[in-house]
Design goal:
Number of helices: 13
CATH topology of the largest domain: MetI-like fold
Radius of gyration: 25 Å
Distance between the termini: 54 Å
CATH superfamily of the largest domain: MetI-like
CATH class of the largest domain: Mainly Alpha
Mean pLDDT: 88
Strand order of the largest sheet: 1-2
Structural class: mainly alpha
Strand content: under 5%
Order of helices and strands: HHEEHHHHHHHHHHH
Shape: globular
CATH architecture of the largest domain: Orthogonal Bundle
Low-confidence stretches: none
């Protein structure tokens, strides 16, 4: 039998069987536990596999990454904060950090701003589902696929580069869209906006649907124009939703890697932190420096993630 078929059979049949067996085993053990302890013990035993999985594949790698960031490459000699000093003293890593800031500002502003604009414009129009489906479509493809598509769009050769073919019809010479910083970074960010605007639009549109139409109509009856209705009622009520979407997109911006790797591999000044981490680890074999970049990226993401969780819990409490 083909090993791949055997592996597939184990995954499809073995994993569910193991889970059922584990549940039956836990319930059998619970029967021999005093009744007063059973309600406390059952959740712990049920969650034990998931907690073990998280510890092995999430907690341990995180701790080990922090440890490696204090070591020197293959030798693993303790060098203290030398790798972090390299990060904040190197023009290449600081350039990557600057590009990540550009990603945060323009990806978040572009995706959330355009998503809000589209959500308002198509709200309750006749062809709303079709328009939303077309705009949301890029979310169905991966960042790698989007990078490949737009790499052809930005290609310098008019015979394969769609944008240069278009400008060529007006007599304009081919443009190196990805060769000049910071414009090349902005063109890469546009690809991210193209993918994320559908996500923002759908969530904001759901938020708009939740606003009472009677409240909006009452404001209009009182003489408020559409801009005043938006500024005084719609936008304030959407702020919690906008905050959650913005923090989600900020996390995506901080983790930006696929689009940059596929389209430029960080060349021409487009490098970001995740791409720099990849190069330090696999191109230069500088595991300590790569781990330091990973830790800094992790530290930057955690506060945003915690804020997102806090806002989500606040919204759930209101409901």
């Amino acid at each position: 039998m083909d090993e791949r078929l055997l592996t597939a059979a184990i995954v499809i049949l073995g994993v569910p069987a193991a889970l059922v067996g584990y549940v039956l085993l836990i319930e059998t053990i619970i029967r021999f536990v005093p009744a007063r302890l059973a309600p406390r013990l059952r959740p712990v035993l049920w969650l034990l596999p998931a907690l073990t999985f998280l510890s092995v594949f999430l907690v341990y790698p995180t701790i080990d990454t922090v440890r490696r960031s204090l070591m020197d490459g293959f030798s693993e000699n303790f060098v203290g904060l030398a790798n972090y000093e390299y990060f904040f003293g190197s023009g290449e890593t600081l350039g990557a950090l600057a590009n990540n800031i550009l990603w945060i500002v323009f990806l978040t502003g572009g995706a959330v701003g355009l998503g809000l604009l589209i959500a308002i414009l198509v709200d309750r129009v006749r062809y709303e589902p079709w328009i939303k489906a077309v705009i949301f479509l890029p979310m169905a493809i991966s960042f790698v696929a989007a990078g490949v598509i737009w790499r052809f769009m930005y290609d310098f050769r008019p015979e394969s580069g769609t944008l240069n073919a278009i400008v060529g019809t007006f007599g304009v010479e081919p443009i190196g869209w990805l060769n000049t910083w910071p414009w090349n970074t902005l063109f890469l960010i546009f690809v991210g906006v193209w993918m994320q605007v559908g996500f923002a639009m759908v969530i904001l549109s759901a938020g708009l649907k939740g606003i009472s139409t009677e409240l909006l109509e009452a404001a209009r009856v009182d003489g408020a124009n559409e801009w005043q209705v938006f500024r005084g009622i719609t936008f304030p009520l959407l702020l919690p939703t906008i905050a959650v979407i913005s923090t989600t997109v900020i996390i995506i911006a901080l983790k930006a890697f696929d689009i940059v790797y596929v389209m430029t591999n960080g060349n021409f000044g487009t490098e970001v932190l995740a791409n720099r981490m990849y190069k330090e680890l696999f191109n230069f074999s500088q595991f300590g420096r790569g781990s330091a970049v990973a830790v800094i990226l992790f530290v930057a993401i955690v506060p945003v993630m915690l804020f997102n969780i806090k806002r989500f819990r606040e919204q759930e409490a209101i409901r």
